[in-house]
Structure to design on (946 residues):
């Protein structure tokens, strides 16, 4: 009865064709990795922020939780409803306008449902760079990127999504609109609401638009694929590259040799440019973005890398001579995930550590895993420049995934690291959050949730557990 | 009675010599600009975070508000108690250890009472740069810098204090310790408490330590003093410099000619290096920090600035040939405030705007002021690269300071700007915050304050008005 009334109200608000139920709703109810499928009263697709606000008010009044969803490309099912069929999925895909671009202020104002690639293209058309870049950029939305504080391949230079946002527009759990769309580099007027909403995975409100930072387009980009004798040498190379390239160092990725062997085995057209490479070596994909030009980029790479060769940090190096070769190096890096997908089981960890601790962590954790789970095969790669590793492994038959993850995450925690560097908490890592966060930190988070969403309307059960259910209507 | 008991408890906690009353307390009770003098039960100087926590617990139990204070160099009296003599001033100056430095992770862990210059020096000794830099750096503390999200001269490249902090340690209003001292570039595990405490001016808790980002030391720094025909040309030059130098552009300051004339009049040893300069011109102080060397910095300056000369964005330019000449250029910039201090009255505004709007804003607001307050003389300078102007003026005799500020701030607000870019709210701008923030934003801030400090222990009357007094014990 109440649901029928809510459905009717939602249809009146956004138009019946934008309230999806039955088969039409199905694509919105399973997460991207197909780990869970939920149920919902409906999937609602409002057209603008006022409709978003009205939808949230209707849901709040009806006691229906709201699950915001962007491109549905997340890794932790933060945008998937639970099985109770009580929630409304609020899709932001129709809020897809680039509202304004201001090249002289180096800002662009976009709606939450803009696909990341669209934002990149709008910036480029204005002669500017929007640097956020990740695998899902053709499907993910900027609202989802902000709600999850997305990372990607350019964090080393430009920071996470958080550092790329200057202002937000947010619909609160009461359906009010906070207009914080300020395009300012400096603004010390009160508490930092912006960064509280960023990364909160739709549990405190709905991001409907944002003002984003733009940057000058680099004149030239060069990549080098580098073989290093081990992770310690890769870390030395990182320090050398930071000193030698400064902010022109825009990516520093590492890949363990077995990952690359998987790629060349899975995809016949992919080749490693090195003649000799053994299993202990690590490859580095290094990218520089130069504001002078091709020749300068080339010269600097030679200066810095010849120093690294002399110092023994580097065994072999190939510098791209063309954009297509650069693309091929990146393709190698990006194919690792696809190659790993061919394995029966792959246990993944998205961890970060102080960069200085990574070589010891990997050596010791590899050893602990080999002892506890004989036959385990490591497949580690990631963003060494950010201290972020995709510490993945192929377990022996019968090994418990939960036991493996516990071993890895306990060691990450002991080393002062994070058990979710890029991907967030969603519904998959709620228990981990409770295990690894201190009581003080958890209590602070709960107080914020209760203060900003006292009725528990927004995306319940994500980030924090459902315990505050008693407060819900 | 209750106060005598609290004093005895505080003495037992931190030692009697660190509980200051009477004359010993006087230096802590007046703000740096000498705008207000408060009264306090005592000034307490704990030695470490555990003592801070205990002091906060004692104060909370006794119903005594806590006013945290660092170097006491703020501009808005955020660290000064009110006149009621009910508060305890909590000085962080004895928490002054550099706890750890990790060059391979490019981080340093410092206590809140470390003087900013000490942090800079510790970084330099480890071969790294800590880039936060501002006039008060010999006296201000890093805890105060973080509590107020300090800006300074390098924001264009490195961001505000917020962007330089990776982790915090905070004592909550209940006297609990949140250990968020993480040295991670990526960590998406729950709400962003760090950025909530940063900039909250001691109203949500006491920052006791922080993990800060370090950067490679630049190989060379060059400055240029540039005369531009007007602010519009200065803005074009900014865009050219951003494209031409990329992240090597570390400062872009503007100064209206009358400011510079004041400096050369007030200080005989200061000279302008230009032969011809008229009152409509604006000078730019541009700094590049180069990771290759002196020659490269020089070459790049010539390339970029000769383009600007050809385009008519620049009338005259002098590039520093030595560190001492660079220092002289910076000294000219930094002397403006001192020269203005010789005027009988100077009405100051610390505003920010989208950079694209600054030329129109200045022209139109200058005109509006001249109409409303005939005889007003403008003295404008600031960080154009950050959209931040110190929009100062010398009013005609008898003009109301409040009326002038209202005119300026109303126009800033209408243009989407901030009425406090760097300096915060403290006690001086609480009414402005209420005037210019939306009801939605104010309500969100109040909810956060109430959630994290339900008894109103922390720095009451700062940032937000005292209205929640009813909740206090």
């Amino acid at each position: 009865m109440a649901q029928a009334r809510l459905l009717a109200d939602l249809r009146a608000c956004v138009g019946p064709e934008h309230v999806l139920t039955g088969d039409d709703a199905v694509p919105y109810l399973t997460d991207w990795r197909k780990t869970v499928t939920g149920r919902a009263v409906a999937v609602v697709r409002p057209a603008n922020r006022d409709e978003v606000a009205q939808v949230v008010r209707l849901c709040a009044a009806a006691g229906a939780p709201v699950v915001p969803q962007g491109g549905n490309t997340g890794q932790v099912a933060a945008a998937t409803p639970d099985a109770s069929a009580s929630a409304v999925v609020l899709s932001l895909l129709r809020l897809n306008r680039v509202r304004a671009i201001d090249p002289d202020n180096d800002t662009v104002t976009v709606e939450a449902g803009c696909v990341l690639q669209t934002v990149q293209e709008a910036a480029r058309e204005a002669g500017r760079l929007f640097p956020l870049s990740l695998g899902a950029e053709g499907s993910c939305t900027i609202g989802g990127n902000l709600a999850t504080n997305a990372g990607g391949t350019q964090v080393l230079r430009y920071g996470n999504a958080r550092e790329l946002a200057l202002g937000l527009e947010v619909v609160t759990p009461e359906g009010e609109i906070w207009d914080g769309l300020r395009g300012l580099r400096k603004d010390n007027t009160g508490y930092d609401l912006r960064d509280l909403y960023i990364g909160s995975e739709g549990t405190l409100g709905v991001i409907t638009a944002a003002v984003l930072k733009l940057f000058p387009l680099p004149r030239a980009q060069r990549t080098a694929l580098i073989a290093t004798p081990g992770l310690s040498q890769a870390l030395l190379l990182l320090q050398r590259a930071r000193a030698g390239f400064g902010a022109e160092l825009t990516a520093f990725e590492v890949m363990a040799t077995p990952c690359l062997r998987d790629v060349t085995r899975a995809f016949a057209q992919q080749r490693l440019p090195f003649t000799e490479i053994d299993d202990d070596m690590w490859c580095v994909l290094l990218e520089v973005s130069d504001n002078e030009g091709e020749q300068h980029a080339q010269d600097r790479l030679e200066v810095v890398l010849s120093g690294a060769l002399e110092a023994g940090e580097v065994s072999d190096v190939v510098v791209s001579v063309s954009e297509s070769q650069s693309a091929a190096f990146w393709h190698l890096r990006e194919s690792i995930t696809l190659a790993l997908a061919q394995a029966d089981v792959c246990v993944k960890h998205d961890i970060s550590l102080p960069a200085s601790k990574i070589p010891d962590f990997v050596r010791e954790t590899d050893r602990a895993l080999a002892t506890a789970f004989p036959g385990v095969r490591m497949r580690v790669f990631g963003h060494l420049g950010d201290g972020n590793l995709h510490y993945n492994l192929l377990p022996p038959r019968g090994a418990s995934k939960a036991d493996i993850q516990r071993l890895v995450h306990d060691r990450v925690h002991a080393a002062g690291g994070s058990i979710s560097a890029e991907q967030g908490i969603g519904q998959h890592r709620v228990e981990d959050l409770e295990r690894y966060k201190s009581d003080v930190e958890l209590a602070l988070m709960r107080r914020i949730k209760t203060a900003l969403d006292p009725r528990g309307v927004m995306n319940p059960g994500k980030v924090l557990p459902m315990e505050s259910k008693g407060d819900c209507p």
Summary: The mean pLDDT of chain B is 95. The radius of gyration of chain B is 23 Å.
